[in-house]
Design brief:
Order of helices and strands: EEEEEEEEEEEEEEE
Number of strands: 15
Structural class: mainly beta
Oligomer: single chain
Strand content: 35-45%
Shape: elongated
Distance between the termini: 38 Å
Helix content: under 10%
Amino acid sequence: MVIGSICGVAIPVYAKEETKIIDGNDSYDTATYLDVNGNYSEVLSDSDDVDFYKLIPDSNGKLSINFGHAYGDSSHGWKVTIYKYQDGEYIELSDTVIKLEDNEKVELPFVGVQQGCEYYIKVQNYNWDAVNKVYTIKTTFIRSEQYEREENDSYNKATEMKLNSPYTGTLNNNNDIDIYKINATGNGKIELTFIMVS
C-alpha cells in the first residue's frame, strides 16, 4: 500500500528485531532506513564518523527515540540531531548531547511527525571517548492526530487543532516555538487548559 502526502510518498514499515547496521551511512543520501518501531545497534568507527538514519512515517503521530549505551565514567559521548526534509532543505528539529556518564537509556524529546515526510537522525561523536563504543537506537511510533506536527514554528505552518480535543507537544530545544491554529465553527467561547507533564 502506498500513501501520498504533501511531503512525499509514505512507505509502510514494520518492526524488526535488533539489527546490526553496516557502516557507510555517513550522509543524508546514504542514510539507513529505520522501521518506526525497531531496535538498532552501531558504533562510530573514528572521531569523524557520522551515522545517518531515515524514517518515513505512514501516518501522522508521535515518534519517540530512545538512545542506549554502556555506562562510562566520562563527560564525552554522542550528539544526536533530528531533521525533517522539506522544500529542498533539512530543518533541524532537535539536538541532544548524550554523555557516557548519563543514564544508559536516554529518551530524546519526541517529534510530532507528518505522514509521508522524511525524518533523519544524525549521530556524531561528542569529543573522543565514544569512538568504537556500541550505541543503540530504539524507535517507537504512535499513530495519532493529537500531537503537534513539526515543524510548526510559524503561523503558516501551525498545527491545526480540532475543538474539544487534547493535543500534546514538546519544545525540542531552546529555540523551538510551537504554534497551533483553531478554526472556530461559529461564535462562542474557547477555553484552553495547559498542562505540563514532566
